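Q: What would this chain look like folded?
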Amino acid sequence: MKKGAALLIAILLTGLFLMLAVFSSRIVYNAYNSVNAAWQREQAYWLAEAGLEKGKQELGRNLNWYTDLPYYLVDNVAWLVRFSVGEETDLGEGAFKIVKEKGRDCLYAIGSRGKALVVLKLTFAAGSLRIIEWREL
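A: My prediction, written as structure tokens:
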């Protein structure tokens, strides 16, 4: 009878340790995914910043420069990401797209890295490059 009890205890302890291993591996997996998502978002943000800088250079050379015709909805992120015509540039493991609508005094930059996406908007004074507002959409 003692051999059977020892075997039962060994089986229960093995099952307990397996459950602990599964739970701890799940915690590590979730932590890794969270850190990776935050890292990709940070990279997408800096790619969007690079896009704004490139767009400011283009506007510095030509204040009438634009990439797309005006869209009737202002700050429509879905349109900016999917359908707008812009200058796209790959940089490292990510990319950015610059969108400047004709006749509007704002510049958009969309940075993307993996599943992360950041849209930045720069509003400037008409006829100059004096920045009025910078924000994330």
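Residues 68 and 101 are 5 Å apart (CA to CA).
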